[in-house]
């Protein structure tokens, strides 16, 4: 059975990219974009995006724009990551919910804002690496791609 597809948010807060700085016990420090797996009850990929942003950041967004679909090879098959650009409208971390925040073994999800600079983005250990490659190449164009 192929891996369940996911969505990822290229979330802009003015001129900065909102990411998670992930500290997981026993793993190397890494960064990730908000998002997650498509659930059976999700009406669409965009619905998944809004649900995940609310769960992970207590965030609402505007200017949702499909950017790319990444093909990420994994042992169990190719995982599709549907990448959407969006602009932050509001964020209330007190509204975060989900298993990733209740289980200490899942590590820490520290919200960070990173300049839209290809060198700074390229220096991060971004997971999945295919997203890091995309963001490094598209960093300068993102504000224009994500109208707002």
TrEMBL record:
Belongs to the Nudix hydrolase family. InterPro entries: NUDIX_hydrolase-like_dom_sf, NUDIX_hydrolase_dom. Residues 2-148 form the Nudix hydrolase domain. It holds the Pfam family NUDIX. This is Nudix hydrolase domain-containing protein.
